[in-house]
Amino acid sequence: MTVKRQEPSSVRLWGAPTLEPDAWTEYVPTGNRQVDDPWLLTTGTFATPEPMEWEEMAHHEPELLWSSTGNVTVEAAGHLWLVPPTLGIWLPSGMPHRVRASAGAITYATYLNPSLIQISWPTVTGIPMSALLREILLHNQRTSMPDTERLRLQQVGVDLLKPAQAASLDIPLPKMPELRLVAERIIADPADNRTTEEWARELGLSGRTLMRWFQRDTGVSLTQWRILVRVRSALIDIAAGRPVVSVSRRLGYANPSTFIDLFRQVTGHTPAAYFRSVSGLDDSTPLPLAPRPRTPSTTPSASTATVS
After folding, report:
1. Highest taxon of the source (predicted)?
2. φ and ψ at 169, to 5 degrees?
3. Which of 38, 89, 190, 276 is the most exposed place for a label (fewest CB within 10 A)?
4. Are 117 and 110 in contact (CB under 8 A)?
């Protein structure tokens, strides 16, 4: 199936190789069924010893993309969706998408039978990957299991699929090629300390012109935009188990409390509260929706590298 590629307009994160087939499911090319009746789902495992980018594709079945390690990005619906280990990305049937994985990442693609499940989320959706859901999807890969037992296991897995109860962190990407270059370099190194004037000199512009262009193209200042990128990078690291203190220092914040304050301004939560809201670990009490991400303050701190 050939699909027209749409350049992503933002980087989006939920508030979460060699194409070797696993023992139970073979990878099926785009356009073919990957889950046959009476099965409800199947999961493929893809390890990437080197960075990998798959061609754009769309599947007959809805797909849940998730990972256990490394950085995974899904380009879909005009956005880049980041897939930390705590969260999966739900892709509706037929949605074109492109997947990238870093070296050392392990990515899982769980396909669900659209004729036998009741889920019908119409757009890309964040799914908390609880420990129980992960173990069920992995246990389903075993070959030695009676059919009735496998079907019961798969039904429990389907029942555990719930949308993340937190707003997404949406980072607008500039459209102008010159600004996109700056954006991509900051995304690659969020701790980059260059000021707006320094970036402008590289582009042959004045600092005032770069500030005006960036604000007009993205809706936020370069200072605010870099804070969003740093929070995005921090979410990935914290989800991978790195301590908040070391993450904040890696991003250029000498005082962790400064980083936590900025994190709260962007997401509406402290890091601990944010991950509770999307982890799915406590399903007994419904959690309220997190507020929509707010524009971070541009007040400089002595512990931050200021973009002017």
Report:
1. Bacteria
2. -90, 110
3. 38
4. no
Domain boundaries, the chain: 10-159, 171-279
Q: Residues 6 or more apart from 167 whose CB is under 8 A from it?
A: 15, 267, 268, 289, 290, 291, 292, 293
Contact 255/232 with Cβ under 8 angstroms?
Answer: no
pLDDT tens digits for 243-299?
888 888 888 888 889 888 888 887 777 887 776 655 544 433 333 333 333 344 433
Structure tokens that stand for 145 in this block: 């299991």
Query: What CATH number does domain 10-159 carry, 2.60.120.10, 2.30.42.10, 3.40.50.11260, 3.20.20.140?
Result: 2.60.120.10
Q: Which of 124, 138, 126, 214 is nearest to 163 (CA)?
A: 126
Helix count and strand count (H, E) for the chain: 9, 11
